[in-house]
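Predict the holo structure. Ligand: zinc ion.
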Amino acid sequence: MNKEKIINFKGYVDLHFHLDGSLDIATVRELMKLNNIKDDLSDEEIRKKTKVGKDCKDLNEYLSKFDFPISLLQTKSAISYAFYAVKERLMREGLIYAEIRFSPAFFTSGGLTQEEVIASAIEGACRSKFNAKLILCLMRNQNLETNMETVLLAKKYIGDTIVSLDLAGAEGLFPTKDFRSLFIKAKELDIPFTIHAGEADGASSVKAALDFGAKRIGHGVNSFKDKDIIDYVINNNITYEVCPTSNLNTRVINSVLDYPLRDLLNKNILVTINTDNTSVSNTSIQNEFILINDSFDLKESEFKTLLKNSINSAFLPRTDKDALLKELDLKFKEINI
Ligand SMILES: [Zn+2]
C-alpha cells in the first residue's frame, strides 16, 4: 500500500493504549508544574525517563519506564489533566476512537483512593470531546484485595466512559492462571474484559485468559501458532490487540515478519494494530501501520480490514460501532481507498 496514504489517513483507532506509558513531553512538563516540581529537564532528559532505548532487555525493563510518569499522576488535578491532554492529542493525531487504559491502584501513592482516581480520570476525559473510552487495569503485582476493589469499582462506574477491565503487568513473574478469582467475579458482574497474555509468557497464558472469558487478548503473540487456540479464537470471535513496536522493544519478536499476520487475516481473525505505549515505545498509531506496511506490503483491503476489526472489537454497543464504521468509510474515501 502506498505509504503516503497511510501518512495522510485520518481515521485511526487505538484499542491498546496505556495512559501512563503515553505522555508526551509537553504533558510531562505540565504535570511537573502541577506537582510543583522544578522543571530543569531537557527534552532529552525527559525522553530518557519515559522511553526505552534500543538495548531494552525485556518486559521487566520496559515496565520500569512507567515509574516517572506514575509519580506525576498522584493528585486529582494531575490525573484529570493527563486524561484531557492525551485525548486532545489523539484527536490531533488523526484518530477517530481510542480506548485508554490505566491502573487506578497505581495512582494512589499520594493518598487518593481508587475511587477518587477513577472519578478524576472520568472528569478529565469528559472535558475533551474526542471519542474515547477508559479501561481499568488490574495489575499482576498488586494484591488480591486491591485488584478486587478495582473490579467492584468497574461495576460501579461502567457506563459512558469506563467500559471494561484488563490485566496488565509482568506476565513472566505473575502467571495469568493466578488471577482466576478476579475474572470469575468480573464475569458474575457482567463486566467485559481484555487480558495481556502471550507476551512475556507462552500460549498457556493465553489459554488461561480465554478460559476466564476474555473477549480480547493484549498481544497474544506466543499463541499465534497454537492450532487449538487459533481454532478457539476463530470460533469465538476473539480479538488480538497486536502492538508491533512494543513487541520489538521487549523482544517478544525479532522482526515484525515474525507475526503470521497475513495468515491470521486470511482466517478472518480479528487482528488489530495498536501502540501500547506511545512514549515508552516512541511511536504513534500511524507509525505502527507504516511499520506493518513496510514489512508486509499491505493490500488496501487489509489496511481497511485491520481498522474495521478495531471498531468491531471496541467495547461499545453495536449502534456506536456502526456509527464509527460509517465515519471510517468516509475517512477511507478521503485517501481514495
Ligand atoms: Zn499493554
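The chain has one domain: 3-334. The longest strand covers residues 95-102.
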